[in-house]
Design a protein that fits this description.
CATH superfamily: Pyruvate-ferredoxin oxidoreductase, PFOR, domain III
Structural class: alpha+beta
CATH class: Alpha Beta
Number of helices: 1
Order of helices and strands: EHEEE
CATH topology: Pyruvate-ferredoxin Oxidoreductase, domain 3
Number of domains: 1
CATH architecture: 3-Layer(aba) Sandwich
Strand order of the largest sheet: 2-3-1-4
């Protein structure tokens, strides 16, 4: 099981990047989840998402121990 966290401000493509990675995993035939989290502000507010994918079933979609963190800015 792999886990990737994407973090940044709204408008930087954080959620879109995570969604694309999860869709690629599904296309490759493995299980995948995409869990977005964002504040009330659309642009400029915090945004992050966790993507998990792998051959085994995914029972917990929450963030555990990410294999990779992609932070788009310093505060993230």
């Amino acid at each position: 099981m792999r886990e990737i966290v994407f973090a940044g401000f709204g408008g930087q493509g954080v959620l879109t990047a995570g969604l694309i990675v999860s869709q690629i995993a599904l296309y490759k035939g493995v299980n995948a989840t995409w869990m977005p989290a964002y504040g009330a502000a659309q642009r400029g507010g915090t945004a992050n998402c966790t993507v998990k994918y792998g051959a085994e079933k995914i029972y917990n979609v929450g963030q555990q121990k990410p294999d990779l963190v992609l932070a788009m800015n310093t505060p993230s």
